[in-house]
Design a protein that fits this description.
Blueprint lengths: L1 E4 L1 H9 L4 H10 L4 E4 L1 H11 L8 H14 L1 E2 L15 H10 L2 E3 L12 E2 L1 H7 L4
Parallel strand pairs: 1-2, 1-4, 2-3, 4-5
């Protein structure tokens, strides 16, 4: 199954190994969930995950990003003519729409009302992956 994973899900998954976002990361690592991404998303993942405030090790971040790059689906999404309060979030939506997949985020309010935009809990429940 393919999905786009917002950066906040990865941060939460690495922060707490027992929460619902960690379940998403587990599904990714097991190959049951394949992340769709583009170069902008990978760049944001790296930029955010290496921030000193999170205290993730560089090797932990690099290993995760290499795994996503090697096992995920890289695309070049077409730009969408949709207004966003925070244009930095638009890339996740563009990739999700381009791939025709769900976008999993902790901040649904940052995205248009769309059944493709789900919280972690909604995604896990919708696909019976709890």
């Amino acid at each position: 199954m393919l999905a786009v994973i917002d950066t906040n899900i990865l941060v939460s998954a690495l922060w707490s190994k027992n929460g619902a976002p960690a379940r998403i990361l587990s599904l990714i690592i097991s190959g049951k969930l394949i992340p769709c991404y583009d170069y902008r998303i990978l760049s944001e993942y790296k930029e955010v995950l290496i921030r000193p405030k999170f205290k993730f090790t560089r090797s932990e971040v690099n290993a995760l990003l290499e795994w996503i790059a090697d096992n995920g689906r890289s695309v070049i999404a077409e730009p969408l003519n949709v207004d966003f309060t925070d244009e930095a979030d638009k890339k996740f939506y563009e990739v999700a729409k381009f791939c025709g997949v769900k976008l999993i985020t902790g901040n649904t309010k940052h995205f248009p009302k769309d059944p493709a935009v789900l919280t972690v809990s909604e995604f896990l429940e919708q696909y019976n992956l709890k």
